[in-house]
Design goal:
This protein has eleven helices and twelve strands. Strands 1-4-5-6-7-10-11-12 form an eight-stranded parallel β-barrel, surrounded by six helices. By secondary structure, it is an alpha/beta fold. The longest helix has 11 residues, at about 30-40.
């Protein structure tokens, strides 16, 4: 049986970790290097670092911060934000990341997923999907540029396409639940899980340890990602893993 993963997320803007609600109202959550070290020591399975304003501002991910963070870690490390070409992927991986996360660039030019998978291997390519429910669509719509821009893409169709193009993993964020702290979007996670064969990381909505078991038990996520509840010490990775173990969810 595959073990489930708990993944803290560092949303980084201007060199600081920040957190908001539905991608807005950002507040400071600390230094990325200090937080990375803390989570590594605390037993996190992986870490995700997202330079959340890079695509919107039309610039590259902060390589120097990535190098600093990578230097503190013994766990797998995924980096996203402002990655638009193979050269950008190479720079991020050389800086110490284990995987790269593509979002806006993949929507703009889906061939980039295949290029990255062919060159570095599918295991290095994570496609991040920011999803928001659209009543007119009767499903979820894909958003880009840090949740600022809507697209014509339906989430399940896009998820299938990115896997066909070589993505080895999907980081699925519910914009409706992001920062709401009322629990993960189980319907969204389950819907995507049903149409893809690669691991799905559920993101958006964790507000307490009790929110983690359902995302594994009911929507069959492979991993759960959270930010503010870990950053602000509302719970810990160890406490979440203990709760999952008590409920029969196999964790690392």
């Amino acid at each position: 049986m595959l073990t489930k993963r708990i993944i803290p997320c560092l949303d980084v803007k201007d060199g600081r970790v920040v957190k908001g609600v539905q991608f807005l109202g950002l507040r400071d959550a600390g230094d990325p290097v200090e937080l990375s070290t803390f989570y590594d020591q605390e037993g996190a399975d992986e870490l995700v670092f997202l330079d959340i304003s890079a695509s919107h501002e039309g610039r590259k991910t902060m390589i120097d911060v990535v190098e600093e963070v990578a230097g503190t870690l013994a766990i797998p490390f995924t980096v996203g934000g402002g990655i638009n070409a193979l050269e950008d992927m190479r720079a991020i991986l050389r800086a110490g990341a284990d995987k790269v996360s593509l979002n806006t660039a993949a929507v703009k030019r889906p061939e980039l997923i295949t290029e990255g998978a062919d060159y570095f291997g599918s295991q290095c390519i994570v496609v991040a999907i920011d999803a928001k429910y659209d009543e007119s669509l009767g499903s979820w719509r894909v958003y880009t540029h840090g949740g600022r821009n809507s697209t014509a893409l339906e989430v399940k169709a896009w998820a299938r396409e990115v896997v066909e193009r070589g993505a080895g993993e999907i980081l699925l964020t519910s914009m409706d639940q992001d920062g709401a702290k009322t629990g993960f979007d189980l319907a969204l996670t389950e819907a995507v899980n049903e149409v893809v064969s690669v691991p799905v990381i559920a993101s958006g909505g964790a507000g307490a340890g009790e929110h983690f078991p359902p995302v594994f038990q009911q929507s069959n996520a492979d991993a759960a990602l959270a930010a503010s509840i870990f950053h602000y010490k509302e719970t810990s990775v160890a406490e979440v893993k203990k709760l999952l173990d008590e409920q029969g969810v196999v964790v690392r």
